[in-house]
Design brief:
The structure is a single chain. The chain is of the alpha/beta class. The chain has two domains: about 240 residues, Type I PLP-dependent aspartate aminotransferase-like (Major domain) (Aspartate Aminotransferase, domain 2, 3-Layer(aba) Sandwich), CATH 3.40.640.10; about 100 residues, Aspartate Aminotransferase, domain 1. Helices cover about 40% and strands about 10% of the residues. The strands form three sheets. A six-stranded mixed β-sheet has the order 1-8-7-6-5-4, with helices on both faces. It has a three-stranded antiparallel β-sheet with strand order 9-10-11, covered by helices on one side. The longest helix is centred in the last third of the chain and has 20 residues. The protein starts with 5 loop residues before the first helix and ends in a 27-residue tail after the last helix. About 40% of the residues are buried. The structure holds pyridoxal-5'-phosphate.
């Protein structure tokens, strides 16, 4: 083999080198922060601040598949505050759900298959159907009769037990709290859990935004997680960390989860920086949630004053609205919001506030709806023209803005 010349190696180095910074990166980033302060699309858009980065960069440098000290501290801290034995840091809530459905599953025809009766839309209908794809989990969503939250009365008739080979026995009840930003009353969670446990059914919590429940109700994380064998808590949503979800549960469950994390390709390496961001988010961003909830409530109040419909109320950080009672369609709002001198980003019925939301964006959004309402009225639209008030099914609050073709 001919020996590599310095010239050839220099060429290789040049080919392989990469610069991901744009020519105006610092300015772009300032604009990005401004943009997300005016985006009601998702709380996953939040970005790490200089302060978060400075704290996180001092975290330990281990490889998390072996042992990463800062990550281990984060895991044990979250386990402690939720009253569980152990915790596991995962890259996303999606991989966590897939894992949970696998790990809680009974050994069934020789492999881990879970027959899951699932009570929340994210697991059942979102995340690209990952739980069903990877785990063969048969999840069955249940719509609450009261259109707000599940009660044992909703669940009991759907429980499958016994020895009938035609049906998949109920194995897990999974609740999402908050769900669409709304809070399940803790008494109902406890009642569901007591009844489930008396029948040998496992309880799992999708607590992606359980922080918001604690901030709004004053209940401790332990009280909120006690009714469940396992819980997932996202750090990358309302708390504003860039990446991460922590799964908590019993020590044997988490040992097994660590195995499955590797199997699913979720074993990450130098996660200390990410654990540092998460710790910063717990310490400095969690206290910002009451302000976020107040912004969402201000949004709801302003919309109601304009006569805009509310599909799901602002109990925490988000609400779902319906502009049809003032003669306006979602796509019109989205397009006009994008054309404002200081644009606002939306994508449909969900309006989500986060720790980097600008209060001015809310006032500008309300002003835009006021303008649209006046324009419609000037063009002859009358409240009598409004479509009959929709009975919004619980699952139908997510409406995407689509311009008719
Ligand atoms: C309630 C809930 N659970 C789980 C997930 C999935 O989390 P991830 O986006 O980290 O995969 C989401 C995503 O937004 C969510 O809203």
């Amino acid at each position: 083999m001919p020996s590599l010349t310095d010239v050839r190696f220099a060429e290789l180095v040049q080919d392989i080198a990469c610069d991901v910074h744009s020519k105006t990166q610092d300015d772009d980033n300032i604009l990005k922060v401004q943009e997300i302060s005016r985006a009601f699309v998702s709380d996953t858009l939040t970005v790490p601040t200089k302060e978060m980065n400075a704290y996180a960069l001092r975290a330990s440098l281990g490889d998390d598949v072996y042992f990463e000290p800062s990550t281990a501290l984060l895991e044990s801290h979250i386990a402690k505050i939720t009253g569980k034995e152990a915790g596991l840091f995962l890259p996303t809530g999606t991989i966590l759900h897939i894992q949970s459905s696998q790990m809680h599953g009974p050994t069934y025809t020789g492999r881990f298959t879970c027959r899951l009766r699932n009570m929340f839309p994210t697991f059942a209908s979102m995340e690209a159907g990952g739980a069903a794809f990877h785990s063969g989990a048969n999840s069955i969503p249940i719509i609450p009769a009261n259109e707000h939250h599940l009660t044992w009365e909703d669940i009991e008739p759907r429980i499958v037990s016994g020895t009938d080979v035609h049906v998949a026995p109920t194995h897990i009840i999974a609740l999402e709290n908050t769900l669409n930003g709304t809070i399940i009353p803790q008494d109902d969670v406890i009642e569901i859990s007591k009844n489930a446990h008396s029948r040998g059914i496992i309880m799992h919590l999708d607590g992606a935004r359980i922080w918001h429940v604690a901030a709004e109700t004053g209940l401790s994380m332990k009280e909120l997680c006690d009714p469940f064998e396992s819980a997932s808590l996202c750090l990358s949503k309302g708390l504003g960390a860039p990446i991460g979800t922590v799964l908590v549960g019993s020590a044997p469950f988490i040992t097994k989860a660590r195995w499955f994390r590797k199997l699913f390709g979720g074993g990450m390496r130098q996660t200390g920086y990410l654990a540092g961001c998460a710790a910063y988010a717990l310490t400095y961003n969690f206290p910002m949630l009451p302000r976020v909830h107040a912004l969402a409530k201000r949004m709801q109040q302003g919309l109601e004053q304009l006569g805009v419909g509310i599909l799901s109320p602002a109990e925490t950080c988000m609400l779902f609205y319906d502009p049809s009672p003032i003669g306006v369609e979602y796509w019109e709002v989205v397009e006009r919001a994008a054309q404002l001198p200081d644009p606002i980003k939306l994508n449909g019925s969900r309006l989500l506030m986060h720790i980097q939301t600008s209060p001015q964006a809310i006032e500008d959004f309300l002003e835009l709806l006021r303008t649209l309402k006046e324009e419609k009225a000037a063009a002859g639209w009358k409240p009598e023209n409004a479509p009959p008030k929709k009975k919004t099914l619980f699952r139908d609050v997510y409406v995407k803005a689509v311009r008719p073709t």
